[in-house]
Amino acid sequence: MDYKHGWRPFQGVTDFFSEMNRMSNVMHGRSAEAEPRTAASAWAPLTDILARNEDLVIRCELPGVEMKDIAISFSNGVLSISGNRETEAADSYYVRERFFGAFRRAISLPEGVGDDDIHASFKGGLLVITIEGGATAAQPKHIHIAGDGG
User: Fold this and answer.
1) Are 104 and 82 in contact (CB under 8 A)?
2) What CA–CA distance (Å, rounded) separates 1 from 127?
3) Other CB atoms within 10 Å distance of the CB of residue 87
4) Is residue 104 situated within a structural domain?
5) How many of the other CB atoms lie within 10 Å of CB of 116?
6) Within a domain: residue 150?
């Protein structure tokens, strides 16, 4: 099965609970930044994961984040993207929906991906991470079922 037919190996990488907390705050009239951020409520940048030929490409939107404030690491099959968007000084806000402060994304990569397969670039607020051969490694493997067929 391929991406076009329903198989989505990276479905669920969105930080569901952070988004639910944000929506709850907005619905109850609280500012998105009314409470201090924790690891569970830190903002998560919008992220696309796509196949480009044999490679996996991860694109994270990080407007207002400086390259020096972004860290990428890879350990035990998990790619971590973290950083910080500094708050803008202002006397008062009438509406504040953009998140500031620390962020973190953790994405499990397919087996067989090594450090040397991962390359990153940052331009115009867009972080692009390419995992060479990652799309091929992400394909599901068929498991044979032994038995009498009954």
Assistant:
1) yes
2) 29
3) 13
4) yes
5) 7
6) no
Q: Is residue 20 part of a domain?
A: yes
User: Quick one: pLDDT at residue 97?
Assistant: 78
Residue labelled with tokens 């201090």: 36
CA gap 143, 140 in Å, rounded: 9
Structure tokens at 67: 């390259």
Q: How far apart are CA 104 and CA 128, in angstroms?
A: 15
CB atoms within 10 A of CB 138: 20
Q: Count of domains in the chain? A: 1
Q: Is the pTM of this model over 0.70?
A: no
Domain assignment present for residue 62? The answer is yes
Rounded to an integer, what distance in angstroms lies between the CA atom of residue 148 and that of residue 69? 59
CA gap 92, 135 in Å, rounded: 46
Under-50 pLDDT residues of the chain: 1-3, 11-12, 14, 32-33, 39-40
Residue 107, domain CATH: 2.60.40.790
Nearest to 42 by CA among 11, 15, 68, 65: 15
**C-alpha dist (Å) from residue 31 to 19, 28, 93, 99, 123:** 14, 9, 10, 10, 30
- Residue range(s) defining the domain that contains residue 61: 3-87+96-137
